[in-house]
Write the structure tokens for this entry.
Amino acid sequence: MVTQVNVKIFGQEFTIKGEDSPAYVESLAQFVDKKMREVASASSVITSHKVAMLTAINIADELFRLRKELDDKDQQVRSKAADLIGLLDSAFSG
């Protein structure tokens, strides 16, 4: 079911349509609004367009770093699992 949610991000109102719950969409909007305000307060950027672009870059950086961290952890788990399987194979075949 498609829903419409009205949100306010960096002083502008948007209507977002989607299948996610209104509470989820509102939490996303609050996250983006908070990030934009952080960028705006930390820089001398004047236009909301530039603030939005810098915010998008910051969020993309955060996403890429978290993906890499997750991938690294996944590789560690796979390596440990392979080691454990090797130990179990040795224990049961010996």
Observations:
- Residues 3-93 form one domain.
- The CA atoms of residues 40 and 47 lie 9 Å apart.
